[in-house]
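Fold Annotation — chain and its backbone

Fields — amino acid sequence, structure tokens

___
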Amino acid sequence: MAKIETIQGVDNLPEIIVAAASKNPVCVMIARGDLAVETGYLRLAELQEEILWICEAAHVPVIWATQVLDSMVKTGIPTRAEITDAAMGGRVECVMLNKGTFLLEAVSALDDILIKMQEHQYKKTPRLRALGLAKKGLKE
């Protein structure tokens, strides 16, 4: 598993996938907490998208990690933002929850959210634009 938690990891993701896949099956974990701390929260959504696009193109499974339904796991009550964030987990192969008192309730809620979101995914497939990574190699 390649845990992507830095800008350097995002920039080198294609090479990381090729190197890892040459020896073993590979998957990618988007370590969103670490990535947000390094890049700032305003860039997180964009970087998540680029990681998802690269992994989709390479047929590499993705793990959505860091604070998914975190309030719910700890208190039993999710925030509105957590519900929306969890719904984005429908675009990956695995969603990781942290441990907590209400973990079983959070797993059940996540399952319900993802099942409902499956019906919406095919209509709203993201459009692939030029990746920021691809622009690095171009000279103007």
Summary: The chain has two domains: 1-66, 67-122. The chain has a mean pLDDT of 87. The longest helix spans residues 103-121. The CA atoms of residues 59 and 107 lie 26 Å apart.
